[in-house]
Amino acid sequence: MKNIAVVIPARLNSTRIKHKMLMKFDDEPLIRLVFDKVRMMGYDTFVATDSKRIAKCIPNKWCIQTGKAENGTHRLSKRAVLDLVGNYDYILNVQGDMLDVNHETIRPIRKALDKNDYTCLTAYTKGAEPNDVKVIHQNGKALWFTRAPIGYGDRHLGIYAYKPHLLKAYRSMKDKYKKENLEQNRILSLYDIDVIETIYNGIEVNTYNDIK
């Protein structure tokens, strides 16, 4: 059985919603709700953040302060994270805005990691709305990710299982198509990204409409 640590990247100044991770749902900050849900699944769960305010929401043992980062994967590639979770087989990146993440979401990913060897594995659900990030995939491999309303592709969920050595290499990867502004596309220049279907019927808190 693979040894897996979950790391939730969380920045204070999100692009679409100011201080999103600190917004309260059921009187708890969003980041704490997601952290607690994942911890209850039995994983060693860390929050990697650039914010002292976010850090105050998380027990010290499980919080890693990283300084600035370009995106969530870049935050996970920081030395502070890799030094702390260096003894795990995989680092599972779960987004801090996945309010409804649960066992059904993570279980297929966990089973796949225990049966096979991946450098990078990510998840999707069938179908996609125009504003979703879409993954175009074939034979279990991601070909491209896009935000454009292209009319096909499946809904990409921001869950990734990384081998630590990929994260070490991430800082040297370049993003040729910056218009997409998707951290995963730069990985495709050096590594395959395997994909797996999972269940996620909830929301990701990306806009104020999601909150409503």
What would you say this structure looks like, in words?
38% of the residues are buried. The model has no long low-confidence stretch (mean pLDDT 91). β8 and β9 form a beta hairpin. It contains seven helices and eleven strands. It starts with a strand and ends with a helix. The strands form two sheets. Strands 1, 4, 5, 6, 7, 8, 9, 10 and 11 form a nine-stranded mixed sheet that branches. The chain has a two-stranded antiparallel ribbon with strand order 2-3. The protein is globular. The protein has 212 residues and is an alpha/beta fold.
Write the layout of secondary structure elements.
Elements: E1 4-10, E2 24-25, E3 28-29, H1 30-39, E4 44-49, H2 52-55, E5 63-65, H3 72-76, H4 79-84, E6 90-93, H5 103-115, E7 120-125, E8 134-138, E9 141-146, E10 154-162, H6 164-170, E11 194-197, H7 208-211
> How many strands in all?
11
Inertia-based shape: globular
The largest β sheet comes out as:
9 strands, mixed
- Alpha carbon gyration radius: 16 Å
What structural class should be given to the helix and strand makeup?
alpha/beta
Q: Percent range for helical residues?
A: 10-25%
> Per DSSP, what share of the residues sits in E-state strands of 2 or more residues?
25-35%
**Overall average pLDDT:** 91
Distance from N terminus to C terminus (CA atoms, Å) equals: 40 Å
Low-confidence region ranges: none
* Tally of helical runs: 7
The run of helices and strands is: EEEHEHEHHEHEEEEHEH
